[in-house]
Amino acid sequence: MRTAGVCALMVLWAMAHLGSPADGSRSLRRTTGGRKGSLGLTGHDANGVPLRRSKRGWMWNQFFLMEEYTGTDMQYVGKLHSDSDRGDGSVKYVLTGEGAGTLFKIDENSGDIHATKRLDREEKAFYILHAKAVNRQTNEALEGESEFIIKIHDINDNEPRFTRDPYIAHVPEMSDIGTSVIQVTAIDADDATYGNSAKVVYSILQGQPYFSVDPETGLIKTALSGMDREVKEKYLVVIQAKDMAGQMGGLSGTATVSITLADVNDNPPRFTKTLYEFRVPESRELGSSVGAIRAMDADIGQNAEMDYRIIGSDGPGMFDIISNRSTQEGVIVLRKPLDFEKKRQYSLRVQVENVHINPRSYKMGPFRDEASVRITVEDVDEPPAFERPSYVMEVREDADRNVIIGTVSASDPDDKRSLVRYTIDRRTDMDRLFDIHAGNGSVYVLRDLDREENAWHNISVIASEFDNPRLISRVPVYIRVLDVNDNAPTFATNYEAFVCENAKANQRIQTVSATDPDEPIGGHRFIFSLAPEAAGKANFSVRDNKDNTAWILTRRSSYSSLQRSVYHVPVVISDGELPALSSTNTLTIRVCTCDREGNMKLCNPEALTAKAGLSTGALVAILLCVMILLMIVVLFAALRRQRKKEPLIISKEDVRDNVVSYNDEGGGEEDTQAFDIGTLRNPEAIEDSKQRRDIVPETFYPQVRRPVLPPSRDNNGDVRVFITQKLQDNDSDPTAPPYDSLATYAYEGNGSVAESLSSLESVTTEGDQDYNYLSEWGPRFKKLADMYGGDDSDS
Predict the structure, then answer these.
(1) DSSP readout, 617-674?
(2) What is the pLDDT of residues 407-436, one digit of tens each?
(3) Which stretch is the leader sequence (predicted)?
């Protein structure tokens, strides 16, 4: 059917476009100036020859070609012909431009144009080409180049395609009919300007009767009112897009639209029960949870958010309710302490209400609900309760011991009324100044008090039940020590006074004041006077200024430091309290040489020493102590330098117990002070025979002596000869180790990988080991063979 349609279209195309030139479409002929065109003078060239413009015979401007050609032969496009072509083969037709030579070919002799390949309009809708006629021999253009277009005729070969698949949409539940949901769009790649191949019509295949679609715009709307999300939340709608304006034979495509009903607050919250009951112990802490209630709401999200509140209670302020946004629960919390003995049950009225209410849903009724809550208080064995949160007591600092200064009181709040025992937390009374009567809570003094040392004492009293001592409670007790006049006043500081040798009588030389650690209620009132025993022969006088200060005045003039360099003036200070307390304070006055203005210039050494407060004997004692310390340090350093050298072998009785240890470590090549290398280079300087210090010399073994080799000029040779000689001496010496020593190494023993290499612990008794083989080892082991070899009787 499709091939027949293409052939019919080609016939129509030939009838429409290959007619006479008079139809205005195109002419495949070319006329020159004397035939169908008129020549007009347009000017002259450089040589004066008139220029002529010929009217071309190219009358066409476009060809038409059907897309998706399925024939076996190449598709014929059209024919080009020039008036200059007389059929003798002298004219050659040339085609250039888009697709020339590949998609389109021209017969250079006849001018016939064919399409070589199957074309698709959706890939390229038209092609621009250029044609000209040239002389075959000279290749000169017979006509100017002309441009023409080959347009591709569209056929309905593309189905509509949706821009998305699937579509996701939301629409509020309970929406009215005709509420827009989403618009779908399908695109047809065919030519929209040619026929109905690209005219798309929309229809709904699945989703009725809930939704509808506009056939021209693709807008999906609600078609049913009252759609409830709580009944059905998601809908799957299938939309079809069909071209050819929806006629029979058109191509179609489908898309899926997932529509979700968005929640609106159309459901009020509801309690699942009318009465909620909770039990809570009376010891529950403030702010803790008592219980949680929850109302159910069919909505979701913020539409299901609820607020809880207490609208009635027989215990005002005892409880509060907090809305938990994450769980949508109402948490009841405790705000005041519970007391089983006072009230054992509470009743609450709780209301729940939606936070976000849709105005359209007001007509559906109130979005709130109410319920009752009953809270039962459970009895708990509570510790004793004090009557006050804290106690303040006062006591005079001169109070006698065992004097009661106050009483604390606590009782068992439970019904059983258990007896209470009182104690003092000794961590708050480390000096044990106070104690408490265990039965009645009387606090009394246990030791003497001193207000000047500590004016306040903060102790903690513990009350516990006799029946259950683990239940305790504490209360702070603040004890204030009241002041008693028990301290005499003294000088406020250590005064340093001096008098000039040229001082006049009644001259003030010092102003003194006093201090008293007591704190009288009316403040201090000090009285200054000269001691009676010094009044008769006094050189100075004391004048009380009545303001807690006094002046020290001279009673005569002209003092001499040579006669007396220091004066001691006894000053009596009284506090004026009842009973009055007084003290005698000594003021030291130095005699100094002064200038005319009374400025001190020079004082004698005795006075300076007195000022410093150190006597000559004290200075000598200090110097003596320093010398003794220096002698001890020097003696200790000298003793540490002395080292007692232990013998190489301590015991000579049992050679198996002798361990030779070497505590010195050489410095290698850099150690130039460990030994004299010159000794090795001069073998003649070595002693012929040197006794060993760790054994008794064996006289019955002759010493083997080697002739001394002549020295070599090479120092290295001297050392090599010396070492060789000493090695030979030791090899032939029967008294050399290991006859009397046991060498131990750090990599040998029970803790090493090789374990112990000693045979001393390999057998249980000494008799289990046969040492006769030692006699076969040569003269080196002769001593060991004599000691361990042989029969038991010999050993």
Answers:
(1) HHHHHHHHHHHHHHHHHHHHHHHHH--PPPPS-S-SS-GGG-B--------GGG--SS
(2) 999 998 887 888 999 999 999 999 999 999
(3) 1-24
